[in-house]
Amino acid sequence: MNETVKRQILDKIKAYDTILLFRHKRMDGDCVGASKGLRGILKLTWPEKRVLLIDSQQSDYLAFTGPADQDVPDDVYRQALGIVVDTANSDRISNEKYSLCREVIKIDHHIPVEDYGALNWVEEKRSSACEMIADFYAGFRDELRIDRDAATWIYMGMVTDSGRFRFEGVNGETLRLAGLMLDQGVDIERLYANLYLENFDMLGFKAYVYEHMQRTENGVVYLYIDREMQRKFGLTFESASSAISYLEGIRECLCWLAFIEPAEGDPAIRVRVRSRFVATNTLSERFNGGGHALASGATVYSREEALRMIDEADALIKAYKANHEGWM
User: Fold this and answer.
1) Nearest CA to 25 among 96, 116, 122?
2) What percent of the chain shows pLDDT beyond 90?
3) Which stretches within the chain are classed as H helix?
4) Fewer Cβ in 10 A, N or C end of the chain?
5) How many CB atoms lie within 10 A of CB 60?
């Protein structure tokens, strides 16, 4: 079935002179890599087509990837094919004008939530949307073109969304497709420097995280990042969210949560949820969120609700440990 959908997507791309690419709010390496990588492939293959990536959102972490394209009049949207990558539901698409497009295609690797496209290619077991773009190129490489820049963005998304090829969904095919991208001449040292080197001030924040994180009886690690902490370290929402990665790697702790307090007047406290072995997306779904089994997000609206979420996470981990062995 996926092979048929991929062929239909290719045929739609061939049929349009203008193609507009879209991704999700609060961008990450996967949605940026998938959108920029696909744009590169399409522009190289069909230089006569107008291929645009329009997104007004910014990311300090991903600033090195360069800006998106400037917006265009609504009439351009109405004549275009829209392709949305790495976005499970339509209300998360960063550019709401996607709905003006004549037709929309969805390419995504999250648990299916909404079929908002005329064509929907969804593979929830893939480690990243970029893996799907790499697979799309590999399947039609006799017709499609790629260069080092496009391959770099695709590889970037594969690396970041898979935790450097450690997370669930990574398999031999993932690595074969990553290798295909590397064959295009990706400069890994420069890419990894941009992705993983930290500013000196962020090391102070990381030390603060380790001093103030807390642990429940059954092995849930959590941290509440309030506005005062954000001011103290000059954190953006994006850099505050990075704290979730600092909480992993603790033996016997199978779930970790980061609560990020919003700007003054916004009641929505964002929650980053990560786990190993234990599916925690259902926990997120009970708290206004969702996502992958081991990596999801939620929203709570008070400290009391945050505590209830921590308690539910603790009960979930307790039940898992009581009924499973080999979890370290």
Assistant:
1) 96
2) 79
3) 2-15, 29-45, 74-78, 129-139, 148-161, 172-182, 188-196, 200-212, 227-233, 237-241, 243-246, 281-286, 303-323
4) N
5) 10
Helix (H) or strand (E) holding 201: helix 200-212
Average pLDDT over residues 227-248: 90
Instruction: Say if CB 87 and CB 22 are below 8 A apart.
Output: yes
If residue 277 lies in a helix (H) or strand (E), which one and from where to where?
none
Residue 328 has pLDDT above 80, yes or no: no
Residue listed under structure tokens 């998938």:
34
- Beta strand extents in 68-116 (DSSP E only): 81-85, 103-108
Q: Do 287 and 275 meet the contact criterion of CB atoms below 8 Å apart?
A: no
DSSP state of 112: P
pLDDT at 273 > cutoff 90 = yes
**Given this model, what pLDDT does residue 1 score?**
66
Geometric angle at alpha carbon 121, from 115 and 124, rounded to 5°: 90
Instruction: Answer whether 299's CB lies under 8 Å from 289's CB.
Output: yes
* Average pLDDT for 172-182: 98
Between 265 and 102, where is the model more confident? Answer: 102
At residue 274's C-alpha, the angle toward residues 57 and 190, to 5°, is 55
User: Which pLDDT tens digit goes with each residue over 5-35?
Assistant: 999 999 999 999 999 999 999 899 999 999 9
Nearest one of 183, 229, 177 to 207, comparing CA atoms: 229
Residue 15 to residue 145: CA distance in whole angstroms: 17
